[in-house]
Amino acid sequence: MTNLAPALDLAVKEIEHYSKSHPQSITRMYVLTDGQLQDPQECYPFSQKLVRLEVEINSYGFGADFAEETMRKVMEGCQGGRVKWVRDTDTLWQSFCHIGETASNLVATDTELRVLFEPTVTPGDGFCFQPGKKWFGPIEPGIGFNVKIGGLEKERQYIYAFEARTFPTALEREKIATIEVSFNLSGKQRLLTREIFINRSAETWRQEQENEHIHLIFTTLEKLRTNDPEVQEAGLRAEYQILQSEGGDPNRALLIAGALEVLQNTGSLAAIPEQEMRRLRADAHSTMEGSKSP
Length: 294
Prior knowledge:
The protein is α+β, with helices and mostly antiparallel strands.
């Protein structure tokens, strides 16, 4: 039986108490579950408390029946908010090792990303591709995009994707947005600003060549906002292609290959067992457990 509310209550109180004397010491909180929560209604009110802590919250689910969907709801609106599946409980120690290694890789805290689009650009939806896939919904014109990332790790890729509509122009290179990244480094707040340009070309072959990888990313992310079987299949195929080309988690690749086979045979994700669906919805695990030897 998995009762999480008492543990959340204890963790929140401890973080609140410790943060009074060491405000920059605690930047992340991890929640581990090995089954479906028996007290979800008691856990949901903690969502706002976790948001107010302003620390990154992530969850590890291990075993065959982890609480993927419930944990996403509990962590809704929090920094981080990723649910990762640990395939093999015998390698759970690797996940704890990874958490320790990750903490040592933190180079900045309180990281916030802002994207300000030019008036000539109409923004669409915003997404996160790495770390952890997330759909943020539509970006309001004139307001831009803003998200709190939390801790910033060295040697980790942070990839955000944005839809944007531009209009005809004679320019070969056009500025479409400005990116601002603020973060706390050694107790001092810093700000980095970069202007984003795109190359304009009427040559279709050049556009396709330059945008092939970007197309795969957006195809993968598209399945976050619809359950349409064709979109789901295209998204899974795109993710599989990215995993293969970048040498990603082999267990994740096998999982996607199995789901694609079910889709091809039945035409629907409904035939995939719920446990497999939880694993598909979970974020790819960065420790690649099962591919390493103890």
